[in-house]
Amino acid sequence: MTLRAVLVDDELLARQLLRLLLSHHTHIQIVAECKNGREAIEYLQSAPVDLLFLDVQMPGITGFDVVEQVGLQHLPPTIFVTAYQEHAVRAFDMNAIDYLTKPVQAERLQIAIGKVQEKITAKTALLTQLQLVEVLNELRNVSGKVKTYPSRLLVKDGVKEILLPVEAIEWIEAAEYYSCLHSKGRRFMLRETITDLANRLDPEQFVRIHRSSIVNLNLIREIYREGQEDGCVVLVDGRKLKMSKAGRQRLTETGKAST
User: Fold this and answer.
1) N or C: which end of the chain has fewer CB within 10 A?
2) Which of 156, 254, 241 is nearest to 205 (CA)?
3) What gap in Å lies between CA 136 and CA 112, rounded to an integer?
């Protein structure tokens, strides 16, 4: 039985990785990729889908909103994809929902697909309305709690690992599924996408100024605007980093919030 699958994720690299991993599952046919919640809702309301890979955290219309707007009775068997770790994973487990955490691993994908296939075979793939409502409420309660931010990050330093204080990070550079942390002339690699890392760091100290870079606000010396779209920031050590229009907007919003 071939399963018609839809991938929903605002991160292109995340969709590409999932597509690559799914290419080894010949019984799954990817019929659509949606880069936001609006596209997902439109597709799900217009075409039959057997399996949905749904990112939980997306700007604008979230995975929660997709579920609610499509309607529980019309939702296909769903594997959630999430950057949440402890609390969200426990919430999924308690309600017997399949999930994947980023970056997606082939072994974990195999297990999730196996669970969904068992449910489809048993004709129990769709959750009851009560079950799904409980999941959404639990996840919303988790995300509504006071958020704490890490003061140190565990990074590789040659053959050993060290705890790098976040205040020592000058800027962060995207490196596919990794992030490169720049600190005092050194570079440390962290197995985490720049989007996931941006969501974990304190927004009052770190701002994503470009799709490929995050900057420590305390180390910005100057900000330049170049035309209507792009610009750059200059750090205290003289390094110049590109800044997108969206990045400038985030800097502006941070400035307003701190006043």
Assistant:
1) C
2) 254
3) 19
Segments in the chain forming alpha helices (H): 12-22, 37-44, 63-70, 86-94, 106-121, 129-144, 194-200, 245-258
How many domains in the chain? Answer: 2
Contact by Cβ (8 Å): 203, 214: no
Dig out the tokens for 103 from the structure.
Answer: 């970056």
Range of the domain at 74: 3-144
Among 144, 171, 206, which residue terminates a domain? 144
259 residues of the chain, pLDDT tens digit each: 789 999 999 999 999 999 999 999 999 999 999 999 999 999 998 999 989 999 888 888 888 788 888 876 678 888 888 876 543 554 454 333 577 888 889 998 998 898 888 777 665 444 455 555 666 666 566 555 556 788 888 888 887 778 899 999 999 999 888 899 999 999 998 888 898 888 889 998 999 999 999 999 999 999 988 766 678 999 999 999 999 988 888 888 876 544 3
Q: Sheet holding 206-210: strands in order across?
A: 186-190, 178-183, 171-175, 213-216, 206-210
Q: CATH no. for residue 48?
A: 3.40.50.2300
Q: Which residue has the tokens 């599924």?
A: 177
Q: Rounding to the nearest 10 degrees, give the CA dihedral for residues 18, 24, 29, 34.
A: 10
The CATH number given to whatever domain includes residue 237 is: 2.40.50.1020
How far apart, in whole angstroms, are the C-alpha atoms of residue 137 and residue 142?
9
Count of residues for the chain? Answer: 259
- Report the alpha-carbon distance of residue 224 to residue 227 in Å, rounded: 10
Rounded to two decimals, the pTM is 0.50
- Return d(Cα 167, Cα 158) in angstroms, integer: 21
